[in-house]
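If you are new to this repository, start here. Below is one unmodified record pulled from the training split, so you can see the exact layout before writing a loader.
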Amino acid sequence: MNYKQNEKILQLTDKTLIIGVDIAKKTHVARAQDFRGVQFGKPLYLENSMEGFQTFTHWMDELTAQHKKSNVIIGMEPTGHYWLPLAYWLMEKRLKVVVVNPAHVKKSKELDDNSPTKNDVKDARVISRLIQDGRYSAPDLPEGIYAELREGMNMYDQLMKDLQAVQGRVHQWIDRYFPEYTTVFAKWEGQSSIQVLKMGMFPDEIMGTDEMTILTEIRKKVKRGVGLKKIRQLKEVARHSIGIREGKTMARMKINTLMDQYTLLQEKISDVWEMIEGLTSTIPGVKEMTDIKGIGDITIAAFLAEVGNLANYYHP
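And here is the target side for that same chain:
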């Protein structure tokens, strides 16, 4: 639960050990202080590893014993994804983990030495000071099915971006080597068109290929809807094509590769979405969301992946 700033400040007492951690890819830096801002000991450099995490908890236990503290609050910037292993590890140990706004850290750097320059030790101190001032929030890290759903939606979004990139490259290939192609197949992503593209033929090669050979290739996926009339139309536009005729060997390899990528991505997107639907079907409230006009399955899955368990929120 996220409280108002005054409520956050009042939670800090003389028994609270405040720790600020500056997150990095390989080595984090931690500083400790009390609720008045008095710094304890030297900065701790900890590796982003199990050994480093254990060193951190040992250092923290020593400080709490030495300064007679009974509770600890640990803050960090949500820097990329590097902070997640440490945050999850600490939360598994039932330690209070909070995050501070990177913009606040940047603006607060000048308070100590009138310099906005970055320094790991300085940043860790700034983070602990922000916690002291109540300028932090509790991270909503997903667990269980919601962690699965967030990872699934991240994968789904990335696959869709990859698919869009491949689609763009196919469009470019058609524009270069057979720009008249879309006058026959308005949508190149139709099954019939995909089968023709997978043959990797250029306009002059289509002209020299038997009609039944092309139709037989299409029939492997599409049993009806496309006949010899469509094939003859394709051969006719190929006869007058202005497509590039140089560099065919590598261009053929390119379209074959693009078609393989396109097919694979379509299969993976289907597999991932099937798993996402399986996850959302078990979450309370999804059926009621689907009853809302204009709200689709992807919107619901993305919403739940982002906000997590709705039971964690005390107010709409």
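Two things worth knowing about this chain: The chain has a mean pLDDT of 90. The longest strand covers residues 39-47.
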